[in-house]
Amino acid sequence: MKNFKLFHTSRGFSMIEVLISVVILGFGLLALAALQTTIIRSSSESKAQTIALGLAKDKVEELRNYSILNEASNAVACPQVIRSYQCITGSGAAETITEGGVSFSRTWIVSRYVASGSVFSLNGSNTEFYTGSTPRNEFKSINVTVTWTAANTQAQFVTLKDAIGAIQPSDTSRAQNPIVGSSPRPAIARITDPGLIEGVIPIAVGDGTNSAATNPKPELVVGQSVVETRFDVLTYAGLSGGSANVQARVETVMTGCKCDTATKSASTVRGYRPTYWNGTRYAVPEFVATATPGYSPLAGEDASTTQSPLCRICCRDHVDPVGTDTALFSPYRAVRNGSGIVTTAHPHYNSSAVGSPVVTAGKFSEACRLIRVDGIFRVATDLNNDYFGLLATEDLQTPANNASSAVPDNYAIKRYQGFVVDYINERYTNSTTSTYNVPSATNATLLEGPRVVTLNAVDQTVDLNQPSSIDITAPIQVKTLHTRALYFDFLEQEAIDAITNAKASCPSQSGSVLSNCVLKKLPFTSINLTEIANWNSVNPDPIVVTNNDANATGVKRAKVTATSSAQNTPATIYTKAGKSNSGLLDLSFDAISPDDAIKWQDTQAFRVNPNGSVPPGPNDGTFYANLTMPTGFVGTAAVYSIRTGLPAQSCTVGSPVTNNTCSVNFTVVGNGLGVDNGMAVDVTAYNRATAVQQTSPSIANCTGTGNATGFSIRNSGIAPYTVNTCTNYAVQSSTNTNTGEVLTVPSARITKIFDGLQTETTRLSFTRINNGNIISVIFDPSSIVTTLTPSSTGGTCTFTCSGLNNSGNDCNASGPAFTIVAPICP
Known about the structure:
Structural class: alpha+beta
Radius of gyration: 37 Å
Strand content: 25-35%
Shape: globular
Number of strands: 46
Helix content: 10-25%
Number of helices: 7
Low-confidence stretches: 1-9, 172-186, 399-403
Distance between the termini: 65 Å
């Protein structure tokens, strides 16, 4: 009897293998932990360095912002707030400042240099004007050092050096104007001509110089509270070949914030008065401290929400307390006496509702304008919306989609440019200083009227309020509107003096010459508010205007469409915008006060279906389907209307994929238009199959036929062959424009059938499709492309010989002839 041994195959891991794996994994995790620690430490150090540099810059600006040269007597002790050049001295003891959980120590050294002949030499005293020393004959060297301890306990520091000249503050504006005959050579910045950008309207300010604001874009972080709008105000000249030279750039951020008095900084923290227009530029803001009458940090950020980083200084600085005698943040809301001293501070509110209580403690809303001054964003004096209105837009004269442009008509642009200059002349050039800060709606209304505008030698009489009415046909036509606002800064005395001096020194006291002299001294800008203003219609108007189309690739607001209605039905669109800062923020951020909630408004009348009416009825009628296909799509997709229990009914193809017309003729109650779940839309025939000729890659293992049978297999080499490229598209989302219902993937009401085939169909089942509705279908811009070569399933590659070689055992010298057949798309 034989003995058999059973052999078992080992399964699983041995203990040694497990231990080795654990050791390797442990080394990896340790390395990853070390990397994570390094990244966190690096980020923390970068943030600390940025804060330290800002603290150093703040101190330099504080020392630079003196208002007089020296105190009444050299024996007078310097006050806490540096108000004189004489009192710019070294720090002595270090200042301790805590920012972002890090404690910083700030010191500064001041060295005084006095001119002796043509040489500046170090002088021993910082706080005394020596005999023979006169303004502009000396300067003080400033060396600011900020130190802190890093997370690794190593001491860190940054140092900032600058020089401050002894210039009488009243002479500053003279120093900024070039001497007659001089040739300053500033750095030249080249930009694309702003006038070539849609929605930008330049205003000529004389001598070939223009001013224009870039199109503002509101930014809202969904789920948080970061609300900002950014734009630049550009002054430029030297237009040539579509480019220009920048003379000045005012980089602007509007930010909406939620503030809380419970989180305000300590009373000793630094703060700043506003940056404001001084007649030449936006001035470096004045440093303030607790010794300034009435000043104390107002509030900090609301800790319960994520906001813009700029809210820190917005909540801290934006206050005009009683006793303030400098430029104001809100000059139209605070009250000043005849001496320019604030007697009633501007109020804050947590709601814009009329009758809302003033917030003296707790949370409130704030909207700030910030301007980059000397490289740092500073809170500026509030904007003021002087004039708000619609401009006529281009009429594209296309049969299917009339007047869909958001760009103002060329005649309307030129008429508006003339209006702005006329308005400025009426308010500033031809007026006294008493009207400079008093907007006049009456003047604006008078100046809007008809004027002759000439373009390309063609005259046309243009009124800013035209067209009085716009014809629109439901629902295949779209009209996009355009609205603008003209903003002016409140003029403080420095700016008023600059305008007065500009008038006095102007070569002419009338006409365009005087106008140009004044225009250059004014802080104004015209801004495109199409993407910011609030748009609506009055129910039951048979017209709809988009207020924020998230799926739009261009303008997301102001697109007007009409629903079904009888012939010549009147309708009206309204657009509104706030008077001050909040009017330049996204609609998700409410006005900051009851007076700010009172908005400018303009209207546009429409006439719906001027040439006929759309058939009424809950079950019969017409709806439309607009398809947005991916770039590169070739062909025509098909659209069908689907009714419960009945065959699909094809829609009339649009041009080529927009305005597909779906006519419904079915009168049985319970199916058709106007009935819940009575209709659906099928989109099909959008997948593509394309034949492409290629020679690479070579097809392997081609088999012989005919007289080549029996020879060894061959590769196709460089023989050309045809392959099929199959493109598979997918619907990304769909919206019933007139009801606002949105279907997104993966939605139970977006059903894909036969996915990947040329006969693939996507069914869109809206809750209700009414007569005149517009179904917008967005396809995913990315697509899956599959190339089917003969090596794929179903492909073949064969060859034959045109003749045998002398030995009869292979093809002759001319080689084999290949026949290559690629598989077809499904």
